[in-house]
Amino acid sequence: MSDIRKIVILTGAGVSAESGIDTFRAEGGLWEQHRVEDVATPEAFERDPDLVLRFYDMRREAIQTKAPNAAHLALARLDAEWAGDLLIVTQNVDDLHERAGARRVLHMHGEHLSVWCTACDARSRWTETLIERPPCPECGKPALRPDIVWFGEMPYRMDDIFAALEDADLFVSIGTSGAVYPAAGFVRNARELGAATLELNLEPSQGTGWFDEARHGPATQVVSDWVEEILGPPR
Ligand code: BJW
User: Fold this and answer.
1) Coil, strand or helix: which one is 82?
2) 223 with 174: CB under 8 angstroms?
3) Strand order in 110-117's β-sheet?
4) C-alpha 175: how far from its chain's center?
5) What is the DSSP string of 85-109?
6) Which residues are known to be catalytic?
7) Which of 30, 133, 172, 192 is the most buried (most CB within 10 A)?
8) 3-state class of 233 per DSSP?
9) What CA–CA distance (Å, rounded) separates 191 from 169?
């Protein structure tokens, strides 16, 4: 680690699993309970907005009852104590990295606690339900949708992500299956751009062969151990 200054960390649903938030592709995961095409595409929202709004209302409510786990806390400690550049790019739409105290977080797939007005394009913080079609806090029109990146939509802040990957000395992927692009391709981008690459996941991801090193186990353990290796034991 002595020559590492700039770190990019990609997180996925696995980092929040031990907080009690369902992952997507596990047995019994979200995509076994709901068809992706019914709830996570712009076409689904056009076809049956009530179904989609209820799905996200339910999940928005649920995440507010969950708490960060040891993996979120370890990453927040790394964020606070790492003097070099660091960016946590999360695919997660929960706010557990922030609630653990992390500051350098980028939500590439949007956020449960944000809404997007399709009339005036404003984004607003939101903790309530959307099913009753509440007015946009900015323009007053009942045109709010979840601020979530659905399949076929462009993930957020790709320019910032690629700029960070270009400079990175180390890319670490945590708790993600490597099934969804463009995030699944970041390890190859990072490698081509000269970064060392590390996977921390419960099991080998789809892209595990692209990493220089992979450590497998629950995030609360493998992430905490890795952060302690870098920073030493917490004071
Ligand atoms: C643990 C653990 C523990 C469990 N500890 N680990 C054909 C080929 C290639 C691409 C495409 C294609 N057809 C279509 C596409 C593009 C499409 C895509 O990738 N589809 C694939 C399914 C093939 N992608 C898109 O449409 C994206 N947009 C796009 O590509 O725009 C064009 C573009 C072009 C060029 C550059 C840039 C852009 C948009 C993707 C939007 C994804 N949205 C979702 C839904 C969000 C809303 C919601 O929450 O409802 O985002 S899908 C879902 O998957 C969610 C997640 O962020 C994402 C990734 O899932 P994640 O986090 O990896 O979860 P899981 O469940 O898959 O894995 C969990 C892992 O954790 C597992 O490995 C476990 O083992 C592990 N684990 N417990 C540690 N305790």
Assistant:
1) coil
2) yes
3) 123-125, 110-117, 144-148
4) 10
5) -EEEEE---S-HHHHHT--SEEETT
6) 109
7) 172
8) coil
9) 10
Statement: residue 2 has pLDDT above 80: no
State pLDDT tens for residues 169-180: 999 999 999 999
pLDDT at 36 over 90: no
pLDDT above 80: residue 10: yes
Nearest Cα residue to atom 64 of ligand 1: 13
Q: How many angstroms does the Cα of residue 204 sit away from the middle of ligand 1?
A: 15
Q: What is the dihedral of CA 78, 82, 87, 88, to 10 degrees?
A: 0
For ligand 1, say whether the CB of 23 is within 6 Å of any of its atoms. yes
Task: Ligand 1 pocket test: pick from 75, 150, 151, 154 the residue with the most ligand atoms within 8 Å of its Cβ.
Answer: 151
The SS3 call for residue 230 is helix
Strands 170-174 and 213-216: unpaired
The residue whose CA is least distant from atom 55 of ligand 1 is 91
Ligand 1 lined by 180 (C-beta under 6 Å): yes
Under the banding of pLDDT at 50, 70 and 90, the label for residue 209 is very high
Say how many Å lie between the CA of residue 100 and the centre of ligand 1.
Answer: 23
One-character DSSP codes across 10-71 = EE-THHHHTTT---SSSTTSHHHHS-HHHHSSHHHHHH-HHHHHHHHHHHHHHHTT----HH
Beta-strand pair 144-148/110-117: antiparallel
CA distance 44 to 16: 26
Looking at the whole model, is its pTM more than 0.85?
Answer: yes
